[in-house]
Amino acid sequence: MTTKPSILTNMAFWQSPAWMARTTSIYPLRAGGGDPSFMPWWKEAWILFRRSGAYDVVLTMGVRESFLYAFLCWITGRSSRQIMTEVFIDAPAHDRLAWRVKTWLYRKLARSALGFITNSTAEIDTNARRFQVPRERFRYVPLNTTIDEPHLVEAPGGYLFCAGRTLRDYATLRAVIDATDLPWHIVGGSGDLEGTTLPARVTIHREIRREAYLDLLRGARLVVLPLLPTERATGQVVLLEAMSYGKPVITSRAPGTVDIVRHGENGFLTEPGDAAAITALLHQLLPDPAACSRIGQQALRDVQIHHATESHVETRLQAIAELWRMG
Q1: For position 189, what pLDDT does the model report?
Q2: Taking the CB of the first residue and of the last residue of the chain, which one, N or C, has fewer CB atoms within 10 A?
Q3: What global pTM score does this model have?
């Protein structure tokens, strides 16, 4: 048995030459080539199933993709040799028969997997409990930043900024906006804050290009990310992108953010829904550019050390190898 398993995956992680050298994606990838044209989730699962026999490990990303692949292996009596990642659980609905049936099936399929890789430490307990799988079959791998070259971009005269689409707490954000008199830029999805009347100093951007989003992020003085309470990790991508430019971030204490932010050192954590705490931190930080700079520089250092692409890849490959050996 070799110490490095062969890996088939539906991930399209072209940003790392080391990852592409150690894995085989169902997508044609090349370094610097950008994202491919993605297939529907059911087609990804089918291709993984057809090609899985030649590999030691099948790393599946996504809930539907992962469980359809597992189901195909189950009904054909084939060993899945599967490791699941980014399998985000939904809110419990014990009173609904459909949810109970789905959960029963997911548990049966999950037990056949070699293991799971999570984006947060909190998801180890929640997923182990939901799927009734031992905790030792989970590994936490910190997310990598999507910024190719993290560097300091300070904007002491800039605006306040919020971005993201998943589980943002816009009611809390609105209360914070009303308690400040500075300009804001908010980047969201097509329906976010639709029908909401906001002050003229607030600009909402919906479904904009990534480069336009990054331009707005670089021009921000400080980033505010209020998140809804949930068992799912969320907010990490925007958080790490902001930290990659040395932006001080105030965010909610939630799965994922608590793995990255050390309160008062590289950012700030508040309880979900606590607009008063966010407002108090803004009033403390905005008149103190030296404190903002100190926090932002530490955030940047942490990203460079703990969330660089190649360190992420090394940790992920190590986790895959460990779970494979256990299986």
Answers
A1: 87
A2: N
A3: 0.91
